[in-house]
Write a structure and sequence with these properties.
Layout: H1 2-45, E1 48-49, E2 57-58, H2 62-68, H3 71-103, H4 110-122, H5 125-135, H6 142-149, H7 163-191, H8 195-203, H9 208-219, H10 221-236, H11 240-247, H12 265-274, H13 282-312
Antiparallel strand pairs: 1-2
Helix pairs in contact: 3-7, 3-10, 4-7, 5-11, 7-10, 8-9, 10-13, 12-13
Length: 313
Amino acid sequence: MKKFSSKKHASLTVRTNRKGMLFVLPFVVLYAIFNLFPLLYTLVLSLFSWNGIGEKTFLGLANYSKLFSDKLFWSSLSNVLIIVLGYLPITLVLSFIVAVLLYSKNLRCRRFFQTSMFLPYVVVPVAVGMLFSMMFSWQSGTINALLMKLNIISEPIDWLGSQKYARSIVIALQIWKTFGYVVTLYLAALTSLPGDILEAASIDGCKFGSLVFKVILPMMRNITAFIIITTLIDGIQIFDAVKVLFTAGNASAAIGGPGRTCLTPVWYLYYSAFGGSAVRDFGYASAISYMLFFVIMILSSAIVVTRIRESRS
């Protein structure tokens, strides 16, 4: 009887596992077709030279060795790192301050402020690029019109055509877009902090500044590290908004903005794959994508290792 019961239980477990696999199967199939296969195919394609029409030419690792001497690629990588370093610290500081203010229970219209600040993050990047392109347009931009009306400037400034201002506009765009996302994460982290520790600190006479810098911030190191990693990954991959910002209404505009100071690696990848018959090489573009993956992996791993060492010390 006991042997029969164990067989029945095993049979029921097998049937349950099969049903579970059937439910998971559609996701696995779709993931393999639309995610796994493109990843593997891109890796294979990076070993070839192919313009998308003719025969593929096997090159081995030549595309990768070419990347190490490609000044335009390394220039695009340095551009995006400068942009990330320009907006990431500002975003972190401002977002934390606003999150602390929103955490206050005495603030009215709290939900309204949270929603309104998060909305830019869900706006399509192309729309963000169009918005900033219209705002900073040399001829009809609202920024120039406002500054001239306030008598701050006497003539319109070519914001998007000047190497002096171009990166600053991209930095402002990224701050505006990621600000609400970082505020939301910080606010969620604040609500999850143990209340007894904060209450004990306030009872001991800990002032607001000391409470923030000596109690709250040290307890939020993990979420700060997570924000830095995700924002870094997102920043290195920016493309849509920046391309639309500098090419809206002008398809023949030079890639990378004025002096290519705003050329990003993904924009360079797009240009290498679809930039024209003279430069079109899907194999080289695939190599750029994998090189970018390795760069992101190295930077993210460095941040994680640094955080682990800090927690152990």
